[in-house]
Amino acid sequence: MSKIDEIKSLMAVLEEDLVKFYDKGNKAAGTRARKQLQDLKKLCQDTRNEIQQKKNEG
């Protein structure tokens, strides 16, 4: 279940930076949040592909 932990960890960090960006106006946090969202997108796509592959095997 390391994928779940990885997603949770990324979401926790993302949440912190989104709060800093939207509530405090920290522009650097917005840049970090954009990178984390891109990483999350890639992780989700990799997870989807892995699920599809396992589904097709069995």
Explain the overall architecture.
The chain is mainly alpha-helical and 58 residues long. It has one domain (2-57). It is 93% helix and 0% strand. It is built from two helices and no strands. Helix 1 packs antiparallel against helix 2. The mean pLDDT is 95.
List the helices and strands and how they pair.
Elements: H1 2-24, H2 27-57
Number of separate structural domains? 1
The geometry reads as elongated
End-to-end Cα distance:
19 Å
Order of helices and strands: HH
Question: Count of helices?
Answer: 2
| Quantity of strands, as a count | 0
| Residue share in helix | over 70%
The biggest beta sheet is recorded as: none
Global structural class = mainly alpha
Average pLDDT for all residues: 95
Query: Approximately what portion of the residues adopt beta-strand conformation?
Result: under 5%
User: Spans of 5+ residues with little confidence (pLDDT < 50)?
Assistant: none
Could you write a compact summary of the structure shown?
This protein has 58 residues and is mainly alpha-helical. The chain is built from two helices and no strands. 3% of the residues are buried.
Keywords:
0% strand, 58 residues, 93% helix
